[in-house]
Amino acid sequence: MTSSANTNKEDRLRQFPLTGALREDGRPLDLEEYERYGGYQALRRVLSTMTAGEVIEEVKKANLRGRGGAGFPTGVKWESMAPLADPRRPRYFLANADEMEPGTFKDRLLLEGNPHQLLEGILIGSYAVQADQAYIFLRWEYNTPVRNIKRAIDEAYRRGYLGKNILNSGFSLDIAVHTSAGRYICGEETGLLNALEGKRPVPRPRTLHAGELGLWGKPTIANNAETLCNVPHIIKNGAEWYAQLSRCADGGTKLFGVSGHVKRPGAWELPMGTTIKEILEEHAGGMAEGFKFRALIPGGASTQFLLAEHLETPMDFTSPQKVGSRLGTGAMVVLDDKTCPVGFLLNLERFFARESCGWCTPCREGLLWTERLLGAIEGGQGEPSDMETLRSLIFMMGVGRTFCLFAPGAMMPLESGLKYFREDFEGHIKGKSCPWS
Amino acid sequence: MLTDTEKQEILREAARYPHRQAAAIEALKIVQRQRGWVSGDIEELAELLDMTADEVEAVGTFFSHIYLKPLGRHIIFICDSISCWVMGSDMLREHLKKRLEIEPGETTKDGRFTLMPIACLGICKDAPAMMVDEVLFTKLDQGKIDDILRQYQ
Description:
heterodimer, A: about 425 residues, Ubiquitin-like (UB roll), de novo design (two linked rop proteins), globular, B: Arc Repressor Mutant, subunit A
């Protein structure tokens, strides 16, 4: 590589810390390559010069918020870990890499292409909460990321970045990979705890905070994989640098994705606060030939639709909420004019009905009925009263009426869809067929 | 009956956790790797993992990649989530049904393929996608599917 190419990559890394070092050929960075781009410098700094409290302060100052969909401030979460005076050991740290939100393919990019970045994030996070053991929870289907991460873990042990007394700091950590076997609910934080323990992965009551009572009743912190990949860069370059990467109050960059009938579907690391329009037009290249934009879900299957009039909305943690949606995972799925919106919603709700863990009644029964009603309407057998029934299902699966947030999430696209595509629904019911089929 | 090799592999997995039960999923996967499915091994697994048979079954019946009945030599997992659906996965599923003469969840008469729906494979930019066993295929169309089917016996 020429020196100018190196400089270019250094510049890219300052601007796009999470993906700037990724190889063009898709192969993962090995340990030496990762170190060449400054890898494990943050860990060295943390272990030699920072207290756990200082690490948490820096992450709070950077205003890093969870990238898995909920947006909880990472530093605040770390502070919720039971104090060291608590005698329970071991203390656990979990990386949630169970990416299964429909339309979302951001963690895969990071897990596959730069596994050491995740390991360094886990190491620093574990130091911040003084965890003894970390697990990376991966879905069965992500076998390439699993292979790459396992290889990286071996390399890190050999180089002394993992195991006992890391870099002579007195801090010790082991990381193991836990590979799952399907089911969306495993990505829900408390479902993940049960899955990892070898139990049926139904969620746990929200009153039990994992920091206090987590894996096997021990203090535990779980963070999304993308969130953790930010951490080494925050420590290495500082909270102020991190904050100025973004175009809004939320710090840093975010991986955004676009799929559907656009010219260049893909995922890109961009400043937090980049507008939907810019992502859609400049990065995804606009709509594919012969397709017109109708709407999109901005952050995975459990986010509300947005329309053309919302395209100037910046993608950050607050702006999409002002127009009735959520950032979610930042993975947009585009609904075009040649695709039936009722069919689109039927597809989403069929996914949720199938993936419901069945633990609480409103979700287990309600989603099934939602799927059946949408299926009837799409198939031309809908009744005018079905619209009211759907609305009552949305009410009955609202926040506070179900055991976890799975069903309320499932209702988000539906509620907005009934509002925005009302004429399409009525057209199906009156015409007794789907105009798109 | 679990073989000694299987038992050893399961105990090696279990050693990574403070409680053997955490290896339940891995243990079920180890068992079905050889035989393709989990049959009469539940009691034995339970004993090995300090669990009750009911607990093993509660796990086995929940996860989509644990098979409690025999399947074909190869499993086709066709993604039916939203991005793939927008890009035409319904048509591909119909094509597979016609080619294999089975419905989703069924196995071909010659035992070669089982067809299964699967949730988002996390490769939406290259939709539509499917996996055959552990191999991912993307940007599918009918011709590509025909080529892929020919590779598996």
